[in-house]
């Protein structure tokens, strides 16, 4: 095996839509299958150009274990091509990307598709364990009397269904929901409600102005009832006055994190293609970018929103770069207050000394270089699909602007962070 540099060739994604809306009846595997088929068609690939498929998915359904393999085979890829599913919460597809880069750089593969898919609509409720035991008893009972006895044991409290979305967005270690961790940060970094609402409003404004550019990275998705041509969470007109009237969603009495300054819950799929230089030249392809460095970090679960700061610090160290060298930033907008807290942490000498063991602050992130096409608050955040969406959006914009270096980063529930630095090829 000979190691080579990994290049980002191209990518594609579905439109992102709000959960319970246009994609509510689309199984996540079908989102992924359609995404992959469209990409193979776009690239004029027969399938034998790919060595492996790595797909992220965080809400794993019992009827589609290892959803990556199902997507691979159903899209027409050969059964000889391996496929792996990655679950790392919000970083699932970014982790898929990192694994793909590593495999190419170490010479294990020449060509890998990395991506992720999430349907936050197509998620069955969970039965309480007490009800599960009683239903199992009913199924296993052989006599009618025993079956009736099992059913009679079911009480009202046994019928309280559990929402997998609410459970999944709660950290099992601390007990905090993701929104509550955002509340912790806005208090620690003194982020006002007005700042959060203004940031969220700008996300929508930028995404609306960038609709034409964003369409370059997605394809029209045909549902049984309509064709979805674009991300449907972006608002042309958003009232700051109306936003200000909303109460805190996670802390109704004192909180400032609302549904308007948080990302929505969404359905969608995204993927990117990575290749070695040898494979790329063999197929006569040109890259969008090369991968300079990647990083993953861990931090306190209750401050998970600061993951991008820790991960960026490590990615910069590995790349021998400074924050000022980065021309474009894509930082996932889980919450407006969370991103704003990161911006303060980036520019805080105290934070750098206490948390990063640095003598000076990482530096100030120029707002004009941050999420220039809007972010997840407007575009959407289908959990496992977001990482490669950030990378794809960043690479496309770097190409348009002839930017040298770009950084994509996100926070991860449970107290982790991920970042990647790209260089325009």
Describe this entry's structure for a reader:
- With 425 residues, the protein is an alpha+beta fold.
- It has two domains: 6-123 and 264-424, 3-Layer(aba) Sandwich (Peroxisomal Thiolase, Chain A, domain 1), CATH 3.40.47; 129-159.
- Helices cover 37% and strands 17% of the residues.
- It contains 16 helices and twelve strands.
- It has helices at 28-43, 67-74, 92-105, 129-140, 144-152, 164-168, 178-188, 193-209, 211-214, 240-244, 277-282, 307-319, 336-346, 349-356, 376-379, 386-401; strands at residues 6-13, 17-18, 52-56, 83-86, 111-119, 221-222, 227-228, 266-276, 289-298, 328-331, 405-412, 416-424.
- Strands 1, 2, 3, 4, 5, 8, 9, 10, 11 and 12 form a ten-stranded mixed β-sheet that branches.
- Strand 11 (405-412) and strand 12 (416-424) form a beta hairpin.
- Helix 3 (92-105) packs across helix 16 (386-401).
């Amino acid at each position: 095996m000979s190691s080579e540099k990994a290049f980002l060739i191209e990518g594609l994604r579905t439109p992102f839509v709000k959960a319970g809306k246009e994609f509510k009846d689309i199984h996540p595997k079908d989102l992924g299958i359609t995404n992959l088929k469209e990409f193979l068609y776009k690239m004029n690939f027969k399938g034998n150009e790919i060595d492996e498929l790595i797909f992220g998915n965080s809400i794993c359904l019992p009827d589609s274990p290892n959803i990556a393999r199902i997507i691979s085979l159903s899209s027409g890829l050969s059964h000889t091509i391996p496929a792996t599913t990655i679950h790392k919460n919000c970083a699932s597809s970014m982790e898929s990307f990192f694994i793909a880069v590593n495999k190419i750089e170490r010479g294990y593969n020449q060509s890998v598709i990395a991506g992720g898919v999430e349907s936050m609509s197509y998620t069955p409720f969970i039965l309480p364990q007490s009800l599960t035991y009683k239903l199992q008893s009913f199924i296993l009972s052989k006599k009618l009397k025993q079956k009736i006895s099992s059913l009679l044991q079911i009480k009202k409290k046994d019928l309280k269904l559990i929402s997998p979305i609410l459970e999944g967005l709660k950290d099992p270690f601390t007990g905090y929901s993701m929104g509550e961790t955002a509340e912790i940060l806005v208090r620690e970094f003194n982020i006002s409600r007005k700042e959060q609402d203004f940031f969220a409003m700008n996300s929508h404004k930028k995404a609306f102005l960038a609709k034409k550019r964003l369409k370059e990275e997605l394809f029209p998705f045909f549902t049984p009832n309509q064709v979805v041509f674009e991300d449907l969470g972006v608002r042309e007109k958003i009232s700051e006055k109306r936003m200000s009237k909303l109460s805190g969603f996670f802390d109704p009495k004192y909180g400032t994190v609302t549904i308007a300054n948080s990302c929505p819950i969404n359905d969608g799929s995204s993927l990117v293609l990575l290749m070695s230089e040898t494979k790329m030249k063999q197929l006569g392809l040109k890259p969008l970018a090369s991968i300079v460095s990647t990083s993953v970090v861990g931090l306190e679960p209750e401050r998970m929103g600061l993951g991008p700061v820790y991960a960026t610090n490590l990615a910069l160290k590995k790349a021998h770069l400074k924050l000022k060298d980065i021309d474009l930033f894509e930082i996932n907008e889980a919450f407006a207050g969370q991103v704003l807290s990161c911006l303060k942490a980036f520019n805080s000498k105290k934070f750098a000394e206490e948390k990063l063991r640095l003598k000076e602050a990482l530096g100030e992130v120029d707002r004009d270089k941050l999420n220039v096409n809007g972010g997840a608050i407007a575009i959407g955040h289908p959990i496992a699909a977001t990482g490669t969406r950030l990378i794809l959006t960043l690479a496309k914009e770097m190409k348009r602007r002839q930017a040298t270096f770009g950084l994509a980063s996100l926070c991860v529930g449970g107290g982790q962070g991920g970042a990647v630095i790209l260089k325009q090829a």
